[in-house]
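Letters spell out the chain; backbone shape is given numerically. Take this protein:
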Amino acid sequence: MAKPNKKGPIATVDIFCSKCKTQLFKYRKGGKGSLVKCFKERITKDFTTQPCICPGCGLQFARDVLVRGTPAFKMIGGKVFIK
């Protein structure tokens, strides 16, 4: 399988925790679909102190996985939203 494009899209989205509305990431997302995974190389700004744990409420919002050989965060459904 092909690896994701390193440069990726230019437009960024803000990712927030659904429970406490704390900002988690600034992310370069491609496409119009829902947020299923975040490739670590596309995260432009990381507001978390521990990986996959919200700094505001301590909720786990994602899992650390490899997607097509590239490190990524797989989002848990309903735990995050994007603006």
Summary: The chain has a mean pLDDT of 92. The chain has one domain: 12-82. DSSP finds no helices and seven strands in the chain.
